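Appendix B, record 7
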Amino acid sequence: MGTIANGTAPFWRAYTASEEPPQMCTVDQYDETLNIYRPDIYESISSEISSLDQELRSLSLDIHDHPELKFEEKYAHDVLTAFMVKHGWDVTKNYHLDTAWVATFSHGNGGRTIGVNSEMDALPGIGHACGHNLIAVAGVAVALAIKAALVKHDIPGRVILLGTPAEEGGQGKVILLKKGAYEQMDACLMCHPAPGPEHGASLSSSLALQRLSVEYEGHTAHAALSPWQGQNALDAAVAAYTNIALLRQQVKPTHRIHGVFEGKDWAANVIPDNAQMLWYVRAPTVAEVQVIEPRVRACFQASALATGCKVAMAAMDVPMYDIRQNSALGDTFAQAFRSKTGPIDYEWGIRSASTDFGNITYALPSIHPGFSIPTVPDGGNHTHAFASAAATPEAHRACLEISKALALTGVRVIEDDKFFSEVRANFEEDMALARVA
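Structure tokens (predicted):
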């Protein structure tokens, strides 16, 4: 692979019509001359992952072929824990949650602990359309490669691989965080597939998210005979929807507010006395979400006042925080990835989506790079096309390549005292900034 000129790389498409010019992305270039941390350890990591290639490919396809929804990942739980037991790890099944699990490995006495996450859940109707089969296998590959490096180079330390259910709408990691599953980790690593530059990785953030439930209670009446006797809950929901549309003109372009409404026992000749709404409020940081949320709630209250309905509002869960990519961890990862695999960008990945891993990045130093897999036009995450892309040989190869750079980053956390001091200092500084809207 040669150096990419002018700081750009082509978007990775599964195919491109011959008459269409390739879409180009701004990147930090691939550069094989970059110095990386401990090249000898990287070679040990690369050798270990290469030796596991076919096993990991089979595991990925097995999970892909058995998609399971949030909190129902029993098959994935069983095959992943069996795989780690086979490779000599101490495994606890049903760890805090029925489909969560943890695998641990220690070498020598003392040393720091690196955490790694494997996601498992799929999406309703479209299977592994977010590529969690690849995330599961990447976590396994990273953990096994760190283990091999610790043993070969006699580095004392510990690895915790955490199987995390219900990323898709269940906030599995937030639950596990509250239950103490991350307390023993000094830092945590994971990755996520997405469209992006060819053979690339992304160190973008994600959007923070607060989900709100809203219910209007009105009063029924005959819609023709005596409509003045009713309070129309459907009108309240429609007015709220319109209020939000007006609010969008006065919020930042980086903010996202979107929702749906529904009711029960509606009929055209009956004034509806009930309407429910589900709204998502997103922004680049959780601090910004907390600023905009009261303005959104005011839209709901205003429509209740206008229609004479009662309104009940509630946050459905704790916010999902934005990803805070630890810059010290990110620099080590980026140097290794750019030297050995491909370019790094800061725009793609899951920048405009949300993830429960964001909450982990507020709790301890972490990184969550995206990695590109080849997609068709309009075939990004949460589409049937992306589910197909997540099973391709190219996606598997990209998964293993990013795992190598992540594993090297994890070993450095364990071995390099000065580096870990930088990691912690960066984390503390960033947390002070993260709380400012």
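Remarks on this record: Confidence is low (pLDDT under 50) at residues 1-5. The two ends are 42 Å apart (CA to CA).
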